[in-house]
Amino acid sequence: MKQIELVCAKNEKYNSKSAVYFHGWIMSKVSEEFATNMHQTGVNSLNIYSYHTRDTINFVVSLLSVKAVEELEKLLMDPKFKEFVLEGENQRQYLIIDKKVNSLAEKELARNFYASDSPRGIEIQLLTPTAFKTKGYYYNLPDLRFLFQSLMKKYNAIFEGSEQIDLDLLDEILKNTKLVDFSIYARRYYIHRSFIQGCIGKLTIYCKGSQTIVNYINTLLRFAEYAGVGVKTSLGMGAVKLLTRSDNSDR
């Protein structure tokens, strides 16, 4: 997996729908086969979100499969690719001033699972509005079942080619984890003319289970930094960042 960040000069006030429009731009550049496959599969191999600083607007693109890397890495990293225009923002032009690349191989995730003593306490930040879909409705609270179920489905789909998950393992995770602290608030995420109510903020999760379970949870959350969590991650929702980790045994 690769994550490419395009750092752009700030042109106007930041628009949270920039990631939606950038997704449209990306889809206009990929092959018809890849675009069709993305629309037909449940778990997307492309994850996009945007954020801003005082001086920049940044677009983060995670390429989760070999095919996604083949389709987009060459385009995005081409030295001649220095600007782009998003049609949905009244022809707004973005000038690229820097590009950053990170990689996360399946082998690295495997080492995290098999060869480390990962911390039991993990703090994560929901960078962009995050929501889950259940029984036809969107749910915007940090429910651990929905969070880990989403990550297990994404992980299995990317690395094993199937969205089927081990429900016994999910139950074991939930039995041994607890949301010990959180600071969140609701935020709407607009997609064209509609919106989804999501939440952003910080969560602290503590695991009292075996070291194997702890390592697996850490692996899933490391994966989440690339894959996102919940719905509409290819359109800018569900971006995740790992923050400080601790091993406080008194939780």
List keywords for this structure.
4-stranded antiparallel sheet; 7 helices; 11 strands
Give an account of the 3D structure.
The protein is α+β, with helices and mostly antiparallel strands. Helices cover 33% and strands 36% of the residues. The chain contains seven helices and eleven strands. The protein has helices spanning 18-27, 32-40, 66-77, 106-114, 144-160, 167-175, 211-227, and strands spanning 2-9, 46-52, 56-63, 83-86, 92-103, 121-130, 132-134, 137-139, 177-191, 194-207, 240-246. The strands form three sheets. A five-stranded antiparallel sheet has the order 2-3-1-5-4. Strands 9-10-6-11 form a four-stranded antiparallel sheet. It has a two-stranded antiparallel ribbon with strand order 7-8. It is globular and about 50 Å long.
